[in-house]
UniProtKB/TrEMBL annotation:
A Gene Ontology molecular function term of the record: NAD+-protein-arginine ADP-ribosyltransferase activity
Phylogenetic placement of the source organism: Eukaryota, Metazoa, Spiralia, Gnathifera, Rotifera
Protein name according to UniProt: NAD(P)(+)--arginine ADP-ribosyltransferase
Record family assignment: Belongs to the Arg-specific ADP-ribosyltransferase family.
Taxonomic source organism: Rotaria magnacalcarata
Gene3D superfamilies: Tetratricopeptide repeat domain, Toxin ADP-ribosyltransferase, Chain A, domain 1
Listed Pfam families: ART (PF01129), TPR_12 (PF13424)
Length: 637
């Protein structure tokens, strides 16, 4: 059973902060997609509600006939609502209703004004004394670090352009800009393009605000070149940025964040001069960030158009919060938050991020991203990205990247396996195999682990015949190899034995277990290991089920001998082996040996569980039963 919530596939063109819904309005012929690229027409309230339910990040602009507004249940779901109405003087009290307009052209003009303020949409991340918030902060910083990581195997610029063309297909203005970009772009013009009102800025604003992994992955080339242009410049200054924060959010921020870290999920536009006046917004706190930084760039000679801002800061900068001060003058009140650019060698920062950094370390960006998202419990977006990359064909001519994609599905399968979600794990391993088979033959040695994992998941699902088929495929991949992995052969043979054991095909189970044992005994110099102990135990179990305690006994003894040598002193498995030996001795009527092992089983068990544990009672009952049996035998001798 698949327990994961799936991600709705991205609608073609839905890569900007805003989208427009026309409800009950048929004519979209005059719509200018340079304002908002994605437009959806809904003819019924059911269609409208169903479509909105698929959205998670978008700022929705609704254009609706005035007569249909009463049929909409929750107007607060929309960022703004424009009413197409012949009565333009009618009063509408809802906060999100922007007004009544006589035609679509007048609405478009207002929407264009609304969309121009989208640069104010960015999120702020900060560390704190709260562990969950620290996890989120570290995740965002590691995401940035991973996106900036060199990926020499990929043609990132081509991926960026292909992704842009796909989502702006049919948008004449943006398609023209994409062609211009492809022909004329140089690294030195990164800021010029970023400050231009084009597909680049729109997609980047959305991706950095929402951290949607598919957009970030596809446009990371431009993120890298823009960040590089900013950072290669010599710069040192105190810069300023005004921001408005809800009062509730800001109060939480103040409680936990002095002397901690903060970052902005955007390329931050700043000024070199402190503003003299501030706009106060009801319910919002006005914040002036005073940022002392040694990394940034003056944009005057690089930007596309004249701007009130002077400096652009890289999106991976991290700042130390030096002080938070409430300020007043005759006309304004605001908060000064003084920030200092943090050196990435900062000991406090490295300690904060060390554990997560080690967990996601990987040789390929795609794998590192997958590990990071799984660490953030975001399985669904890893799966979505992996399937997107396979089906869009962007990796089809690159066997190295295809191998990475197969490894990503393997990572997902392993995650599912740990969660005991065996069907989902098998489907991930099967997808990994499907990708591998696009560029290597089916008996290639590298596929043995994947075949084995699929077999193991079938085994967990009690599909024994399928399990044997795939375990045999895993075994054959190794046996046909010019340099077989001996340990893997022993493991796969043991796995086949386990399936036959469950099927009660004991002769077949013994055959494969003994092959596994023989390989391990010959490949390990001293003939001793935990792996060998496990096989001894399995063989003993087969003989026990065949009601052959005499044959089982020496294998139980050998297993216990190795466990006592290689396992921790309080390991539970030692207790189990003593118990098994006790039952074997009892079956052979060697009651003194049986009682001795039963006593040791209880003693060993008490090293790891409390006396009232159910297993302690079971083992104690076994011991007492053996003692009674011996007493009765002695009584009637």
């Amino acid at each position: 059973m698949d327990l994961h919530k799936s991600v709705t596939p991205r609608y073609e063109g839905n890569v900007e902060n805003f989208l427009v819904i026309l409800f009950g309005i048929k004519d979209q012929s005059n719509w200018n997609r340079s304002i908002v690229n994605f437009i959806k027409i809904c003819d019924s309230i059911e269609e409208l509600n169903s479509f909105i339910d698929t959205l998670a990040y978008e700022r929705i602009i609704l254009i609706v006939s005035d007569s249909l507004t009463e049929s909409i249940d929750n107007l607060s779901r929309f960022n703004s609502i424009y009413l197409l109405s012949s009565n333009i003087t009618r009063t509408n009290n809802h906060l999100n209703i922007r007004g009544n307009f006589p035609n679509l052209k007048s609405i478009f003009e207002k929407i264009n004004e609304e969309c121009e303020i989208e640069n104010d949409f960015f999120s702020i991340q900060f560390s704190s004394t709260n562990e969950t918030r620290n996890q989120s902060f570290c995740y965002s910083q590691l995401l940035k670090e991973t996106l900036l990581k060199n990926d020499n195997e990929s043609n990132l610029k081509k991926d960026f352009l292909d992704f842009s063309r796909f989502h702006y297909n049919g948008n004449y203005i943006e398609s023209t800009l994409i062609n211009e970009f492809e022909q004329d772009f140089t690294v030195e013009k990164s800021i010029w393009w970023y400050t231009r009102n084009s597909f680049i800025r729109k997609m980047l604003n959305r991706a950095l605000r929402t951290e949607e992994i598919d957009i970030l992955y596809k446009i990371r080339w431009f993120i890298q070149v823009l960040n590089h242009q900013i950072k290669e410049n010599n710069f040192s200054a105190t810069v300023y940025r005004v921001h408005h924060y809800s009062s509730d959010q800001f109060n939480k921020f103040k409680e936990h964040n002095l002397n901690n870290f903060i970052s902005f999920n955007t390329f931050l536009d700043c000024t070199l001069h402190q503003p003299s006046t501030f706009e106060n917004i009801q319910g919002m706190e006005t914040i002036l960030f005073r940022i002392k930084t040694t990394i940034g760039i003056k944009t005057e000679q690089f930007r596309y158009f004249e701007s009130k801002t002077d400096v652009l800061l890289p999106f991976d900068n991290i700042y130390h919060i030096s002080s938070i001060e409430q300020m007043f003058d005759d006309n304004n009140h605001w908060w000064n938050i003084n920030l200092t650019n943090m050196n990435k060698d900062n000991e406090q920062w490295n300690e904060l991020i060390k554990e997560m950094h080690e967990e996601i370390d990987g040789p390929v960006v795609l794998i590192q991203l997958g590990k990071l998202l799984l660490l953030n419990n975001d399985y669904s977006h890893v799966d979505y990205l992996a399937r997107l990359l396979f089906y869009d064909g962007s990796l089809k001519d690159n066997s190295t990247l295809l191998a990475s994609l197969a490894a990503l599905h393997h990572l997902l399968g392993s995650f599912d396996n740990r969660q005991c979600n065996y069907q989902s794990a098998r489907l991930q391993f099967e997808q990994s195999l499907k990708i591998f088979l696009t560029f290597i033959p089916e008996d290639n040695q590298i596929l043995s682990a994947t075949y084995n994992n699929i077999g193991s998941m079938f085994y967990q699902e009690n599909q024994h015949e399928q399990a044997i088929i795939f375990h045999q495929k895993a075994l054959q991949c190794q046996l046909k190899s010019s340099s077989p992995d001996i340990e893997a052969i022993a493991t796969y043979s043991g796995n086949i034995g386990a399936v036959y054991l469950d099927q009660r095909k004991y002769d077949q189970a013994l055959l494969y277990y003994k092959r596994s044992l023989q390989i391990l005994l010959q490949s390990i110099s001293n003939g001793e290991s935990q792996a060998i102990a496990l096989v001894y135990d399995r063989i003993a179990s087969v003989y026990w089920r065949m009601d052959k305690p005499t044959e089982a006994l020496p294998f139980y003894q050998n297993a216990l001998q190795l466990e006592l040598k290689y396992l921790q002193d309080d390991d539970h498995k030692i207790s189990v082996s003593y118990f098994n030996l006790s039952t074997a001795y009892a079956k052979l009527n060697r009651l003194d040996d049986a009682i001795d092992c039963a006593e040791k089983s209880v003693q060993q068990l008490l090293k790891s569980v409390s006396p009232d544990h159910s297993e302690v009672k079971e083992n104690t009952d076994q011991l007492e039963g053996l003692r009674r049996r011996k007493w009765l035998q002695q009584l009637y001798e």
